[in-house]
Design the sequence.
């Protein structure tokens, strides 16, 4: 810390704008550079993805070979099984999707894509990562305390979650809750930064409709998060008090109501899925416009449908509670709102598909990921309709059909979206190029097994197989489906093994890959005008970019090149010829 | 840390600090909104909570309301002084606001102590659970506000970052408004 | 269609299966169209030497109508699905047909407790039969079930009936079913309720009137005989 103050004092005295960046371990403790903070979020998120993926491996092995010791783990008791599935769900949403898509790529890209040198509140940015890291430590520790990790499912319904005599994990339950609360705090702080930076710190000339889609999507997501998480924070405080202070907010014998938690949770929980969806869509849009060499078809339409989805998402929450004991008349209202939200989302899909029309499509690795996102997410979106139709949900609720549906939305968002963003912006972030062949092997080795895991799970769900059960041999009608479970598990193992190709590619490229030029993809947006990787401050202070056009002017008729970066001044008008 | 160029820009014309405070207040409104709505829904379903509610010290609550409102008034005066560039005067008013916050917390501590000694603990029943949770969350925000006001006032007295006087004032008004809702809901509404 | 995978054994199972099929047809159509167009466009506009991309602003009528028309059609499909869903929901969850018998179903960590009327056909009388794990019912009779929980949230789920309802502590929730096939079927708990969630299996035993009368006679508590 003293080193940092001395550095800044030194810079102040000289009156210049040079920042001295910190070095060594101090950099990773105290740096306020948005790119350093973004990397920290990225690596923490990717580490947590490995943890969550390993957990999936363990519990799927238990499901495929019940009662057998799982290699690299051991025996999976029912209590451990519940802790694993709870942690897997919580980790993938709160500690992978959000930190990678929003905090890492949002942090890295927003200043660069709007032509700024950093976020407007760099110290708040640093604090947000520190709080986030604390949440990671609390969450992971909760798995090793006496009693074990919390096993009540990621939505943590009381009374199970509120009372240790029911959940048998007194410490684990509270620690899980504290970890989630800390993660919320970190993202509230981050959100304020993203929103105000986008609103105010744009390069001169960048009007609202010149902003690329990725920053817009991260900011709309941040606004949604900030406006939806409040009631759950209130609910979490009440749950914490029930767990530790003997209150009875959710205890019917004390005048409380377990359903109150469900409403507070899902009022956040539903917007949350769009909070993670929008940044993934933003990534996909940047990639598709670049590699199809095409202007986005309907920029404003896309923005309005994203905003419409954001607003409507606040009105659908109780479709998670159709058979929860709510007034049955309410179910009809939520069926209507849930069906209506399919309209702006379908519109978004149509606009993206229309952008491909008339394009000049190059199937690079990032483009493969972006296109796979669309193809796979379509399955997730379509299967959601079955669940939104209340009458059908009576049968499908809490079955593997739900599980397969949300993995066809979340996996594209959190995993495909991450690989898309990572392979696309890797040259900028690390200054090296990834190997295309290895990238394609990793791509197919992930996508094909992914479908072989989850299509079978739809069938299991339609067969009536319910969730969160550690051994289906206990259910006579479900025993015969064991081969399907084994298929899904083997596919998962294959998919996880292919991830080694990714790590090999990344490490090899980072160590001795070809050097990346500033703009390897010939894209229009501002981050590609900085060095690869950009220095502290992104551009020299006297050469900050100015913006003259929108972000997607590909194949413009007035240009010979098939792209037209935002920062290139328009050609001066030819001097008028002398009077004739 | 050198202030980034980004922090000095204002594409919307609104100062960045003011934007940030308004977004913070928006997210806080949803937190308290969720908590108070939950309370109201429970209260409607439990008319017998009026009996418990009769044991709150309405006069003390009213006094605390007056304290908070006065502290908001001094925050406004501080902002007025800051607008004129008079940091020292702004700091004096902010210290008064901080004093009001401390008085509020002191009175609340005494109030809660007496209620707990009477047996009205957080576990006593559903009403008291909400009472301590809602008022406690609010009190945490009062304390946090007081700490931030201290640092802003200290800076302002040296003529630095006078724009923050307004921002901390906005936050303080929000804390006040939450109390304006809490007071009738917890103390009065029967 | 679902009955190919799992039998329909209640009067409303067919309604629910019909709704699932309706959604499958409408959504399936759009899914195939969307994926088809998607992959065709990738092929048609793939990069090749000499090929250039077009500059389209999004206001070109000839491309716009390919969005506007599907948009309107999707809306119509949504309305059809809403009507179907509300219709089935009403049958199963909002309309309570008169009961031939009433049973009480209680979930607890980690067992099902059933209270069935005895020979007098009335619940909460001295000859009621209490069982754990298996519920014996008569085919083609309408049952009301009073669903309760002793501790945490459970869920009474009978896949062959397409029946599912959360059991909330502190409440009694009333539902109904009318078995249409005899046999022994799974009762599941479909809400995570602790470490024993995976062993909360029960059996729904649907019997002919003769079988059921014999079972009632055999299991009536001696105190009531």
Sequence:
């Amino acid at each position: 810390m003293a080193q940092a103050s001395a550095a800044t004092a030194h810079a102040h005295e000289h009156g210049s704008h040079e920042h001295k960046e910190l070095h060594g371990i101090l950099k990773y403790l105290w740096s306020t550079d948005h790119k350093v903070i973004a990397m920290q979020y990225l690596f923490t998120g990717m580490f947590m993805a490995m943890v969550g993926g390993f957990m999936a491996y363990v519990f799927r092995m238990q499901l495929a070979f019940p009662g057998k010791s799982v290699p690299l783990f051991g025996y999976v008791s029912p209590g451990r099984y519940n802790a694993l599935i709870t942690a897997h769900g919580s980790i993938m949403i709160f500690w992978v999707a959000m930190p990678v898509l929003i905090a890492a790529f949002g942090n890295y890209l927003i200043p660069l894509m709007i032509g700024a040198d950093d976020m407007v509140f760099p110290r708040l940015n640093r604090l947000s990562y520190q709080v986030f890291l604390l949440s990671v430590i609390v969450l992971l520790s909760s798995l090793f305390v006496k009693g074990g990790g919390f096993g009540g499912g990621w939505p943590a319904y009381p009374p199970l979650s509120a009372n240790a005599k029911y959940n048998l994990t007194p410490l684990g339950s509270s620690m899980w809750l504290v970890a989630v609360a800390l993660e919320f705090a970190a993202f509230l702080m981050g959100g304020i930064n993203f929103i105000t930076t986008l609103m105010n710190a744009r390069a001169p000339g960048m009007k609202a409709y010149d902003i690329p889609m990725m920053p817009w999507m991260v900011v709309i997501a941040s606004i949604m998060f900030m406006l939806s998480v409040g009631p759950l924070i209130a609910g979490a405080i009440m749950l914490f008090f029930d767990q530790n202070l003997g209150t009875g907010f959710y205890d019917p014998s004390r005048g409380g109501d377990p359903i109150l938690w469900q409403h507070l949770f899902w009022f956040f929980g539903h917007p949350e899925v769009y909070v993670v969806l929008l940044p993934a869509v933003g990534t996909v849009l940047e990639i598709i416009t670049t590699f199809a060499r095409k202007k986005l078809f309907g920029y404003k339409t896309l923005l309005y449908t994203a905003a419409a989805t954001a607003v409507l998402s606040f009105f659908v929450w109780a479709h998670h509670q159709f058979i929860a004991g709510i007034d049955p008349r309410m179910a009809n209202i939520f069926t209507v709102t849930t069906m209506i939200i399919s309209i702006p989302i379908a519109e978004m899909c149509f606009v993206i598909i229309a952008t491909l029309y008339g394009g000049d499509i190059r199937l690079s690795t990032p483009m493969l990921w972006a296109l796979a996102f669309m193809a796979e997410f379509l399955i997730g979106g379509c299967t959601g309709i079955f669940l939104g139709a209340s009458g059908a949900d009576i049968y499908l609720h809490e079955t593997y059909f739900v599980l397969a549906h949300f993995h066809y939305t979340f996996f594209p968002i959190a995993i495909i979206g991450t690989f898309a963003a990572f392979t696309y912006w890797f040259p900028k972030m690390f200054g090296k190029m990834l190997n295309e062949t290895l990238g394609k092997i990793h791509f197919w080795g992930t996508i094909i097994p992914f479908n072989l895991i989850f299509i079978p799970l739809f069938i299991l769900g339609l067969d009536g197989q319910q969730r969160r059960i550690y051994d289906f041999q206990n259910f006579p009608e479900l025993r015969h489906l064991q081969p399907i479970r084994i298929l899904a598990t083997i596919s998962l193992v294959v998919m996880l093994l292919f991830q080694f190709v990714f790590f090999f590619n990344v490490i090899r490229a980072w160590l001795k890959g070809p050097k990346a030029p500033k703009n390897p993809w010939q894209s229009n947006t501002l981050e590609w005008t900085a060095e690869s990787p950009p220095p502290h401050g992104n551009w020299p202070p006297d050469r900050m970019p100015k913006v003259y056009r929108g972000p997607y002017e590909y194949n413009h008729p007035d240009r010979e090149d098939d792209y037209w970066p935002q920062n290139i001044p328009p050609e001066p008008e030819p001097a008028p010829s002398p009077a004739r | 840390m050198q202030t980034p160029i980004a922090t000095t820009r204002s594409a919307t014309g609104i100062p960045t600090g003011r934007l940030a405070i308004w977004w913070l207040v928006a997210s806080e409104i949803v937190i308290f909104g969720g908590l108070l709505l939950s309370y109201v829904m429970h209260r409607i379903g439990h008319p017998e909570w009026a009996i418990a509610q009769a044991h709150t010290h309405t006069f003390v609550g009213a006094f605390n309301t007056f304290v908070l409102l006065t502290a908001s008034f001094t925050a406004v005066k501080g902002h007025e002084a800051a607008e004129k560039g008079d940091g020292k005067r702004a700091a004096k008013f902010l210290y008064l606001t901080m004093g009001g916050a401390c008085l509020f917390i002191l009175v609340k501590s005494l109030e809660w102590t007496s209620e707990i000694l009477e047996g009205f603990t957080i576990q006593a029943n559903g009403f008291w659970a909400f009472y301590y949770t809602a008022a406690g969350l609010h009190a945490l925000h009062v304390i946090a506000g007081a700490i931030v006001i201290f640092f802003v006032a200290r800076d302002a007295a040296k003529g630095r970052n006078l724009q923050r006087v307004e921002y901390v004032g906005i936050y303080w008004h929000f804390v006040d408004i939450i109390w304006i809702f809490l007071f009738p809901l917890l103390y009065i509404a029967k | 269609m679902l009955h190919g995978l799992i039998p329909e054994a209640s009067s409303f199972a067919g309604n629910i299966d019909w709704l699932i099929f309706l959604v499958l047809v409408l959504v399936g159509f759009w899914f195939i169209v969307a994926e088809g167009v998607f992959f065709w466009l990738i092929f048609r506009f793939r990069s090749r030497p000499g090929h250039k991309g077009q500059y389209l602003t999004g206001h070109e009528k000839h491309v716009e109508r390919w969005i506007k028309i599907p948009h309107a059609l999707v809306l119509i499909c949504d309305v059809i699905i809403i009507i179907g869903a509300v219709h089935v929901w009403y049958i199963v969850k909002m309309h309570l047909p008169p009961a031939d018998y009433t049973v009480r179903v209680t979930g607890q960590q980690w067992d099902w407790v059933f209270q069935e009327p005895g020979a007098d056909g009335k619940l909460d009388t001295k000859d009621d039969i209490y069982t754990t794990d298996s519920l014996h019912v008569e085919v083609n009779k309408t049952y009301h079930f009073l669903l309760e929980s002793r501790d945490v949230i459970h869920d009474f789920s009978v896949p062959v009936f397409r029946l599912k309802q959360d059991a909330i502590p502190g409440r009694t929730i009333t539902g109904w079913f009318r078995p249409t096939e005899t046999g022994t079927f799974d009762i599941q708990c479909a809400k995570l309720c602790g470490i024993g969630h995976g062993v909360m299996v029960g059996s729904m035993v649907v019997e002919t009137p003769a079988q059921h009368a014999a079972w009632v006679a055999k299991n009536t508590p001696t105190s009531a005989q």
